[in-house]
Amino acid sequence: LIAVLFVAGFGSSMVFGSFVGGMADWGGRRRFVVIFSMIYAASCLTKHFRNFHVLMLGRLLGGIATSLLFSVFEAWLIRAHANAKVMDKLSSSFSTAGFGNSVIAILAGLVSNKAASHGKLRPWDASLDTKEGMFFVDGYLNPFDIALLALICCGICATFLWEENYGESGGKENAENSPKWYDGLKRAYKTTIRNRDILLCGLVSSLFEGSMYIFVFMWTPAMQNLAKKEEGLGEDESVELPYGLIFSTFMVCCMTGSSLFSIVAERMKGEALAVVVFAVSSVAMSLVIVSSNSNVTFIAMNIFEICVGMYFPVMGTMKGMIVPEDQRAAIYNLYRIPLNFIVVSSLLAHLTATQGFVAVTIMLVTATFLQLALARRRLNVSSLADMSHLQSLAMNTAKIKL
User: Fold this and answer.
1) Are 63 and 9 in contact (CB under 8 A)?
2) How far apart are CA 44 and CA 39, in angstroms?
3) Burial grade of 341 (CB within 10 A; 0-12, 13-18, 19 or more)
């Protein structure tokens, strides 16, 4: 049942989130940030119930909220930069946001771990037995309550501190020409199919982020398998690893990547930098596949996390320049359809750790060459010498793998 709930969240993001997020372009990005806070808060509340249908509702709401999380915030930020005529500061803003996200992730992990260990999971009504209770509190539910408070603060801050912004045509519709709920997704699909830059950007984004999600699922069993082999333990035996320390190290690497981006972005175009990021990621995941040493594998995983830290600001900057403003949130959510399909398929396929990392490597290599094509179009590389420089960079990186 847990697996069903897990898949339902990504399925909900793929189906419902696709058009709900697109409505933000004409309904208002700030308004949908507040809606995001309300939906995700409701999802957190459902975790208190010992009822499968309520938990399923929570996962469906969580999927919709996730789509809004990865679209309306970014769309609002880019539009705010455009309105303030500071688009040249966009890459710096994304770099700072990426660094801040990593810091918050580390703090959230520490606080959640402490909160989860405070008290034991119990029914709200102390007179009821654990098997009889329907509404539970304390224990592992405490982190969700903290998240609920954070979401309330998010909605309040957005309401009073942010200005509303729309897509180019947003907020101008009259009653006779009011948009339908599916118009945003429909227009976004047509625009994406007709514009190769937008299409390539979406494919690259979906492939990298899909590989990132699979990595999240697979790094734990991969490290466990290597630790068991090195200690001579059987498959059925358990091994203790410092998961909290490993996660914190990953987050520090993400912070390093975000900081590194702010330095490299001043000397290198985002499209070319993305080629390097994807190529290095491919090499790192290839090392995870072929390595039988836990130290080498861990280092390769950290290299990948550095690339993840660089990916978000570089992709955020590229999408800010490529995706049209009037359909930004809708197209961002359209990008998440293949991403969620990749994640759901990998979960339903029950991949082993090795199979998962093979799939990740294939996606990253594909993303590298698609990014090469996008870089050629975006940078208007007319001379074969300039283009061969990008291609040789990717090929030389690939040789390291061999």
Assistant:
1) yes
2) 9
3) middle
Residues 361, 265: Cα–Cα separation, whole Å:
25
Q: Tokens standing for 221?
A: 């069993």
| Residue with tokens 């590229």, as numbered in its chain | 318
Per-residue pLDDT tens digits for 324-344: 988 888 899 889 889 989 988
Q: Give the type of residue at 81.
A: H
Q: Are the C-beta atoms of 321 and 186 separated by less than 8 Å?
A: no
Beta strands 136-137 and 122-123 are antiparallel
For residue 384, name the pLDDT band (cuts at 50, 70, 90): very low
Q: At 173, phi and psi to the nearest 5?
A: -70, 145
Comparing C-alpha atoms, which of 208, 146, 151, 213 is closest to residue 7? 213
Q: What is the pLDDT of residues 76-115, one digit of tens each?
A: 999 999 999 998 889 889 989 988 988 898 888 888 888 8
Instruction: Judge whether 142 and 119 are in contact, CB under 8 Å.
Output: yes
Residue 386's identity, in one-letter code, is: D
Both tokens of residue 95? 């770099």
- How many residues in total does the chain contain? 402
Q: Residue 97 has which token pair?
A: 């946001």
- For the stretch 69-105, what's the b/e string if a residue is b when 16 or more beta carbons lie within 10 angstroms of its beta carbon? bbbbbbbbbbbbbeeeeeeeebbbbbbebbbebbeeb
Phi, psi for residue 49 in degrees, rounded to 5: -100, 135
pTM for the predicted model, two decimal places: 0.81
- Burial class of residue 125 (count of CB atoms within 10 Å of its CB; 0-12, 13-18, 19+): exposed
